[in-house]
C-alpha cells in the first residue's frame, strides 16, 4: 500500500566508510568535490539573484498594481522557483539547517495546508510581518505559498484576491523571507568550502543526493501524478506547482540543474574509474530527457486528461527512468556507493 | 474527557522497569548455540506471529466491546469500547515494523491502518474545519447517511453494510484518503471529529449517535451501528489471515517462504523494516512533517489524540526486532536469537551503541507519552506541534533526532552483516 509521502529533510549520516582509498582515488574525489562545490555555488548564487528580483517585483507590484507589474511578479516568481528547482537535489549541508529546504518548498501538500494557512493568516488580526512569517511554519515560508497567492483561482476570484492590502503584505513578506533564506544559503555554502573539500565523505553524500533526486523525480514527481503507482488514479494535485501550471517546467529545471551542477563531478569520478563510456552515456541520456522540452511545457492536468498528451508524458517518464537506472544502478555500483535509508522510504 | 481513557500509568511503569532488566542480556549468552542468520530470521517470524496474535486477541476484545455498545449504547459501554480500541493499538503499532520489506504486509495493511483518512466518506462531518484530500471526489460521500453514493461519476449501492462492501469501498474513486475500514475508521466511529485544532480536547462523539428511535443524534444511528459492527468484523478476519501467514507449520505460507529463502534476504528485510520505519516514516512523515508545518491534519490518531502512543509503540516495535524480544499483551516475554546477537559477534562496540540508541529513543518517546498523559495540563501531540510551542517542539525534535541517530547505526549494522543494498522490494512500482 503506497501512500503519498512527503519528502523529509532528515538524513542518516553514513558514520564510517569501509573503503580504503588509494591516493589517486582520493585525488580524483577531491577534484570531483571541487567541481561540485563550485557548480552548486553557482546554482545557489543564481537562486539568490532570482529571489532578490522576485522580492523586488512583489514590492513594486504591491505599491503600484498595474497589469504589467502583475505579469512581472509572476514571471519573476517562476524564474526564482526554477532556480530553486535546479539546486533542489542538494539535500545536505546548509540547506539542512533550520529545514531551509522545506522552507523553500513544502511538498507534497495533499491536504492543502498551504491554502489553509493562508486563509488563517488573512483572516487573523495579527500584523503580517517578517516575525510572523518566521513563526508560521514551513507551509507558509516558501514558493508554494507565493504560488498560491499569485495563481490560486478561488483566491484570486474572491474578496482576498491580490492586490488586496493584506494579501499583498503576505506576498511581499514571504517573498522577502525567500530572499533572505537564499542569501543565507549561498553564503553558508561558500563557507562550507574548506570542510567540503577536506572531507571525503561528501563524495558519497553528493552522489546520494543526485541519486535521491532522480528517484524522487521518477517516483514521486512523475509516476505518482501519472497514476503509475499507488491507487492508479491520475491526479494533478500530486504534482509540483499545479496551480501555476508549471509542473513540467520544474521537472525540466531539476534535470537541467543535475546536468549542470551534478554531472560534471560525477563524470570526473567515472572517467577515473575507466568508465568514460558510461559517463558519456549518462550525459547523452540527460539530453534525451531534455529533448522532451519545450514540447511538454503544458499544465500537467492537460497532459493527464488527454491520451495523446499522456503518451508524450510516458515518453518523458521512460527517459527519466532510463537516466535513473544509469546513475542509480550502474554509476553508483561502479563507484561503490550503497543506497542508505532515505527520506522517501516509508509509505 | 481525555483523562478517563488513559491507560493505567502503573502498568506502563512496570513494563518499563522490566524492559530495563532484560534488554542487555543477549539470548545467546544463555544458550549453547550461537545465533546464526537463519535462526535469527526464524525467530523474527516467531516475533511476528506472537505480535499479530496479540493484535488479533485485542481486536476481538474491541469487537466484543463495540458489539455491547451497539446493543446497549451507554456512556460506560462507549468508554469501554474506547479503552478496548486503545489497548488494541498497543500490539498493532508494534507490528508496523514488519510492513517495510515484507510486501505481503505492506499490500495488506492499508485496509487496517490507512491514514490520513477523509472521514466525510464514512459519516457526517461538521464545520468548515474539515479539510479533505485535494481532488477526492468521495470526501463527503457519507456512506452511513446514504443508501447510494456517487463518487467521481460512479454510482454505488451501499444499502447493505457488510464487511465485504466496506473492503470494496476502500480507496473508492482512486483516492488513498478514502479509508472505509481499519483502526482509524473505528476510531472515528467511537470518538468523532476532533474539532479542537491545536487546543485541548479530542473528538466528542455523543453516545446517542448510537441510540434507538427519537434519542438518536445526527441521524442514521442504526446504520452507524451496522457500520461499526461490519468494520470491526472485517478487522478480525484481516488479522486472522495475517496470523496464519506467520504461523509455524503452515506449508506454503509467508513464514515458510521467508524461512526457506536465503537467510540474508530475511536479515535484509529486518533491517530495512527497522530503518524505514525509524527514518522515513516515524521521524519524517509522522513527526517532522506535522511539526514543521504545524499541521494537525498530519496527526496520526487525530480523533482520539492517542498519537503519542502510536509513536511510542512504533518505536518499541523497532527495538523488538533488534533485541529479538517482545512483551506480549498477557505480560509474557518472547525471546530468541536476535540481530543484536549477530552484530555482537562481529562488532560488540556497534551492538552496544545501537542498543543504547534504541533505549534512548524509547526514553524520548516515553517522555512524549508522559507529557501527553500527565495529570497536570496534559499536552497531547496535536498541542505539541502548535505554532510557537517551544516545549512541544523540543519534545518532538528530541524523538526525531534519536530516531535519526539509530538509523545511522542500523545502516552500519547492515553493512557489517554483509547486506549490500537496503533497497525495498519493488512493491507498488507498476510501470
From TrEMBL, chain A:
* Principal location: other
Is-annotated flag, keyword Chloroplast?
A: no
Secretion signal span: 1-25
UniProt keyword Signal present: yes
Give the source's domain of life in one word: Bacteria
Annotated coiled-coil segments of the chain = none
Residue ranges of the TM segments: none
Give its localization: Cell envelope
State the Pfam families in the record: Peptidase_M75
| Alphabetical UniProt keywords | Signal
Q: Where is the Imelysin-like domain?
A: 40-326
Q: What is this protein called?
A: Imelysin family protein
UniProtKB/TrEMBL annotation, chain B:
Q: Which UniProt keywords apply?
A: Signal
Q: Which InterPro entries match?
A: Imelysin-like, Imelysin_sf
Where located? Cell envelope
Q: Which residues, if any, are the signal sequence?
A: 1-25
Q: Does the keyword Repeat apply?
A: no
Return the Gene3D superfamilies for the record: M75 peptidase, HXXE motif (1.20.1420.20)
Domain Imelysin-like: from-to ranges = 48-409
* Pfam families in alphabetical order: Peptidase_M75 (PF09375)
Name of the protein described by the UniProt record: Peptidase
Amino acid at each position: 500500500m503506497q501512500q503519498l509521502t512527503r519528502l523529509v529533510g532528515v538524513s542518516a549520516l553514513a558514520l564510517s566508510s569501509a573503503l580504503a582509498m588509494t591516493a589517486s582515488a582520493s585525488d580524483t574525489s577531491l577534484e570531483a568535490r571541487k567541481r561540485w562545490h563550485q557548480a552548486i555555488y553557482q546554482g545557489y548564487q543564481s537562486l539568490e539573484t532570482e529571489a532578490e528580483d522576485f522580492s523586488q517585483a512583489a514590492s513594486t507590484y504591491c505599491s503600484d498594481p498595474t497589469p504589467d507589474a502583475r505579469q512581472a511578479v509572476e514571471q519573476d516568481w517562476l524564474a526564482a522557483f526554477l532556480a530553486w528547482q535546479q539546486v533542489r537535489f542538494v539535500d545536505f549541508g546548509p540547506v539542512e539547517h533550520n529545514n531551509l529546504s522545506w522552507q523553500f518548498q513544502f511538498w507534497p501538500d495533499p491536504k492543502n495546508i498551504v491554502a489553509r494557512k493562508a486563509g488563517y493568516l488573512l483572516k487573523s488580526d495579527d500584523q503580517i510581518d517578517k516575525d510572523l512569517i518566521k513563526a508560521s511554519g514551513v507551509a507558509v515560508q516558501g514558493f508554494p505559498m507565493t504560488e498560491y497567492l499569485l495563481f490560486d483561482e478561488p483566491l484570486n476570484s474572491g474578496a482576498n484576491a491580490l492586490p488586496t492590502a493584506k494579501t499583498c503584505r503576505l506576498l511581499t513578506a514571504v517573498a522577502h523571507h525567500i530572499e533572505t533564506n537564499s542569501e543565507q544559503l549561498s553564503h553558508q555554502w561558500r563557507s562550507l568550502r574548506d570542510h567540503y573539500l577536506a572531507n571525503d565523505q561528501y563524495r558519497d553524500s553528493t552522489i546520494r543526493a543526485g541519486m535521491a533526486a532522480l528517484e524522487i523525480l521518477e517516483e514521486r514527481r512523475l509516476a505518482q501524478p501519472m497514476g503509475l503507482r499507488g491507487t492508479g488514479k491520475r491526479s494533478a494535485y500530486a504534482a509540483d506547482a499545479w496551480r501555476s501550471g508549471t509542473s513540467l517546467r520544474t521537472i525540466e529545471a531539476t534535470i537541467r540543474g543535475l546536468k549542470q551542477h551534478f554531472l560534471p563531478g560525477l563524470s570526473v569520478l567515472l572517467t577515473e574509474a575507466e568508465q568514460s563510456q558510461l559517463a558519456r552515456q549518462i550525459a547523452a541520456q540527460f539530453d534525451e530527457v531534455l529533448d522532451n522540452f519545450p514540447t511538454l511545457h503544458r499544465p500537467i492536468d492537460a497532459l493527464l486528461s488527454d491520451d495523446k498528451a499522456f503518451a508524450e508524458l510516458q515518453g518523458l517518464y521512460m527517459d527519466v527512468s532510463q537516466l535513473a537506472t544509469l546513475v542509480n544502478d550502474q554509476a553508483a555500483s561502479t563507484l561503490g556507493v550503497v543506497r542508505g535509508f532515505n527520506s522517501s522510504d516509508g509509505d | 474527557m481525555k483523562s478517563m481513557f488513559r491507560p493505567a500509568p502503573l502498568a506502563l511503569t512496570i513494563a518499563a522497569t522490566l524492559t530495563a532488566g532484560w534488554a542487555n542480556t543477549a539470548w545467546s549468552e544463555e544458550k549453547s548455540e550461537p545465533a546464526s542468520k537463519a535462526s535469527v530470521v526464524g525467530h523474527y517470524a516467531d516475533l511476528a506471529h506472537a505480535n499479530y496474535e496479540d493484535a488479533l486477541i485485542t481486536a476481538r476484545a474491541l469487537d466484543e466491546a463495540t458489539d455491547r455498545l451497539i446493543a446497549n449504547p451507554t456512556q460506560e459501554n462507549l468508554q469501554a469500547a474506547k479503552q478496548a480500541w486503545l489497548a488494541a493499538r498497543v500490539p498493532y503499532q508494534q507490528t508496523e515494523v514488519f510492513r517495510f520489506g515484507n510486501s505481503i504486509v505492506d499490500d495488506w495493511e492499508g485496509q487496517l491502518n490507512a491514514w490520513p483518512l477523509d472521514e466525510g466518506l464514512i459519516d457526517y462531518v461538521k464545520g468548515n474545519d474539515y479539510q479533505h484530500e485535494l481532488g477526492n471526489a468521495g470526501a463527503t460521500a457519507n456512506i452511513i447517511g446514504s443508501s447510494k453514493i456517487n463518487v467521481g461519476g460512479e454510482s454505488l449501492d451501499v444499502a447493505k453494510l457488510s464487511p465485504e462492501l466496506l473492503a470494496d469501498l476502500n480507496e473508492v474513486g482512486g483516492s488513498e484518503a478514502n479509508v472505509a475500514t481499519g483502526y482509524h475508521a473505528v476510531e472515528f466511529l467511537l470518538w468523532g471529529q476532533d474539532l479542537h485544532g491545536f487546543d485541548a480536547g479530542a473528538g466528542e462523539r455523543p453516545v446517542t449517535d448510537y441510540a434507538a428511535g427519537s434519542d438518536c443524534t445526527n441521524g442514521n444511528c442504526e446504520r452507524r451501528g451496522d457500520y461499526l459492527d461490519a468494520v470491526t468484523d472485517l478487522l478480525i478476519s484481516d488479522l486472522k489471515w495475517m496470523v496464519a501467514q506467520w504461523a509455524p507449520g503452515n506449508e506454503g505460507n509467508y513464514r515458510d517462504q521467508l524461512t526457506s529463502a536465503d537467510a540474508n534476504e530475511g536479515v535484509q528485510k529486518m533491517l530495512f523494516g527497522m530503518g524505514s520505519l525509524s527514518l522515513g516514516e516515524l521521524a519524517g512523515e509522522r513527526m517532522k512533517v506535522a511539526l514543521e508545518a504545524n499541521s494537525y491534519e498530519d496527526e496520526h490518531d487525530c480523533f482520539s489524540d492517542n498519537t503519542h502512543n502510536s509513536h511510542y509503540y512504533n518505536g518499541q516495535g523497532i527495538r523488538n526486532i533488534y533485541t529479538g524480544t517482545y512483551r506480549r499483551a498477557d505480560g509474557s516475554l518472547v525471546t530468541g536469537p536476535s540481530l543484536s546477537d549477530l552484530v555482537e559477534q562481529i562488532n560488540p562496540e556497534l551492538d552496544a551503541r545501537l542498543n543504547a540508541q534504541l533505549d534512548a529513543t524509547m526514553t524520548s518517546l516515553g517522555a512524549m507519552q508522559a507529557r501527553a498523559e500527565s495529570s497536570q495540563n496534559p499536552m497531547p501531540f496535536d498541542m505539541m506541534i502548535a505554532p510557537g510551542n517551544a516545549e512541544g517542539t523540543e519534545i518532538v525534535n528530541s524523538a526525531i533526532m534519536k530516531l535519526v541517530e539509530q538509523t545511522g547505526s542500523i545502516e552500519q549494522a547492515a553493512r557489517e552483516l554483509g547486506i549490500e543494498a537496503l533497497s525495498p522490494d519493488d512493491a507498488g512500482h507498476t510501470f
